[in-house]
């Protein structure tokens, strides 16, 4: 009965997933299980198909259906690089959209407090910084208590310091709410900082599936952190930090 004991059933099950655009195969017979509460980061070179895969899981790609097994929970939320808030609605209205009554309002206020935006309920999106808008987007996702959170480069547009703060926030929120997560990112350190497991997509397949057993919060100075980084960079075709493989 304990939520984290023993056998966790998969929140996501993908088998034989194929996606082609014109003559080009982007996802080639992909297989993946993500367990309940598992935090998975997805790395890959630009154009390798990360967003295509996430869109398939989000149910946003109708062409992909019917090519294999694609089981995802009904309650899933998606966060993108841009917050995609409705500019004509206040912050609380954005968060509680579709959630009825005082219960919805209360849940919205609680979610905003959790992302550090208590007191900003009646602000308009354009009165918030980019980082604050992403906090609202996270609150909007988590207020629905999703079993699966799909995040496509959610911090890609933020400055380095804000990004680090958002890592802490996302880690805390996920530890508390325990959704399964698929985080698409270009940032190897972000992946190692946050994920239980890291996948690398290349040429239509997962070429790496690495479990990260380091304690959290992760110590970037830990030699094992550096080893994992080197291994992932090598998979991504980078032979040393900052240098491209020939
Ligand atoms: N709707 C589409 N029609 C045609 N080609 C597409 C479409 N969507 C994506 N592609 C192609 O599929 C490939 C994978 O795109 P995708 O956006 O999934 O890559 P990505 O790994 O997320 O890239 P990036 O890291 O640059 O965001 C690219 O070559 C892209 O041009």
TrEMBL record:
Q: EC?
A: 3.6.3.-
Q: What is the lineage of its organism?
A: Bacteria, Pseudomonadati, Pseudomonadota, Alphaproteobacteria, Hyphomicrobiales
What Gene Ontology terms describe what this protein does at the molecular function level? ATP binding; hydrolase activity
Q: Which UniProt keywords apply?
A: ATP-binding, Cell membrane, Hydrolase, Membrane, Nucleotide-binding, Translocase, Transport
Q: Matching PANTHER family, A to Z?
A: ALIPHATIC SULFONATES IMPORT ATP-BINDING PROTEIN SSUB (PTHR42788:SF17), TAURINE IMPORT ATP-BINDING PROTEIN-RELATED (PTHR42788)
Q: Is RNA-binding given among the entry's keywords?
A: no
* Location of the ABC transporter domain: 12-228
Q: Which superkingdom?
A: Bacteria
**What top-level class of enzyme does the UniProt entry assign?**
hydrolase
In Swiss-Prot or TrEMBL terms, this protein is called Sulfonate transport system ATP-binding protein
Q: Which residues lie in coiled coils?
A: none
> Which family does this protein fall into?
Belongs to the ABC transporter superfamily.
Gene3D superfamilies given for it?
A: P-loop containing nucleotide triphosphate hydrolases (3.40.50.300)
């Amino acid at each position: 009965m304990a939520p984290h004991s023993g056998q966790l059933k998969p929140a996501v099950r993908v088998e034989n997933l194929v996606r082609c655009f014109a003559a080009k195969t982007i996802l080639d017979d992909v297989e993946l299980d993500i367990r309940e509460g598992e935090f998975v980061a997805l790395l890959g070179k630009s154009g390798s198909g990360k967003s295509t895969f996430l869109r398939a899981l989000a149910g946003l790609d109708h062409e992909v259906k019917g090519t294999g097994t694609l089981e995802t929970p009904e309650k899933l939320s998606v966060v993108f690089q841009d917050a995609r808030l409705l500019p004509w609605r206040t912050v609380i209205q954005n968060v509680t959209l579709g959630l009825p009554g005082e219960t919805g309002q209360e849940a919205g206020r609680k979610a905003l407090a959790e992302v550090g935006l208590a007191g900003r309920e009646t602000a308009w999106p354009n009165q918030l910084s980019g980082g604050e808008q992403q906090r609202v987007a996270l609150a909007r996702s988590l207020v629905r208590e999703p079993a699966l959170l799909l995040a496509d480069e959610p911090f890609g547009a933020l400055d380095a310091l804000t990004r680090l703060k958002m890592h802490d926030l996302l880690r805390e929120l996920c530890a508390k709410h325990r959704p399964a997560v698929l985080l698409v990112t270009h940032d190897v350190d972000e992946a190692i900082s946050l994920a239980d497991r890291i996948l690398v997509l290349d040429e239509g397949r997962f070429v790496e599936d690495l479990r990260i057993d380091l304690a959290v919060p992760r110590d970037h100075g830990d030699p094992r952190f550096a080893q994992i980084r080197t291994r992932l960079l090598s998979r991504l075709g980078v032979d040393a930090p900052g240098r491209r493989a020939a």
